[in-house]
Write a structure and sequence with these properties.
Elements: E1 7-9, E2 12-14, E3 31-34, E4 37-40, E5 44-45, E6 50-52, H1 59-65, H2 69-74, H3 83-99, E7 103-108, E8 114-121, E9 129-136, H4 145-160, E10 165-170, H5 175-183, E11 187-193, E12 206-212
Parallel strand pairs: 9-10
Antiparallel strand pairs: 1-2, 2-9, 3-4, 5-6, 6-7, 7-8, 8-9, 10-12, 11-12
Length: 214
């Protein structure tokens, strides 16, 4: 699911809004507060992938990845996706971070190559609540990227932000994202919701997967 406001789908979980072995991993570059949350602006790594805040020089890679029709199919990304959409996303990240609503990251490998976009969002909806959204670039799929990144982000959000309930909201036909949810400890609930962050959310047919801190 990258966070242009995160996603959930084909290796993507509802992220964008409609129109790794890093030597600095874990090092804070600032602090954000809002919606009851205070967190370090940091990078997160498991030695294989790294989640770091998006930068201006990521714009072209984001734009290229989001041409993939599977990402546009499963997420709330604008379609067609223009370079200006990537620019707007990069500009929005800092504002949403400062408000405490969304913590957005790009996922890169040990060579700095773009693998996807992941975010914890909707943190203003309820105390100690968040939703993870993401997309994974086409060439990075079937390599365990989504599972690694979701697990990293889940654990960071619980430890650093104090979140107790984290959800993934997934289209019922999006089998890859459902498998990611199951592999990372999220449990399917009986609740169905409309598509998040879309102008026309449609009927309540998206499965809700929940993870609760111990």
């Amino acid at each position: 699911m990258f966070a242009e406001r995160p996603l959930t789908g084909a290796s993507a979980c509802s992220l964008h809004q409609t129109r790794g072995g890093d030597p600095d991993a874990g090092r804070a570059s600032g602090e954000s507060t809002g919606a009851g949350h205070t967190w370090r602006v940091t990078t997160i790594s498991d030695g294989v992938i790294t989640l770091r805040p998006p930068r201006e020089d990521d714009i072209d890679a984001i734009h290229a990845a989001c041409q993939d029709p599977e990402i546009q199919r499963w997420t709330a990304l604008p379609s067609p996706y223009h370079r200006d959409d990537a620019v707007s996303y990069a500009e929005r990240v800092a504002t949403e971070r400062e408000s405490g609503r969304t913590a957005s990251f790009v996922c890169v490998d040990d060579k700095g190559r773009m693998l996807g976009s992941f975010a914890v969002m909707e943190m203003d909806k309820a105390p100690r609540y968040g939703e993870i959204g993401y997309w994974v670039a086409a060439e990075a799929r079937r390599r365990g990227v989504a599972s690694r990144a979701v697990a990293l982000l889940r654990d960071w959000a619980a430890a650093e932000l104090g979140l107790q309930l984290i959800e993934l909201i997934i289209h019922p036909d999006n089998a890859p994202s459902r498998r990611v949810a199951e592999r990372t400890g999220f449990r399917e609930t009986s609740e169905l919701r409309p598509a998040p962050r879309r102008e026309d959310p449609g009927p309540p047919n998206h499965a809700v997967y929940a993870w609760r801190a111990a």
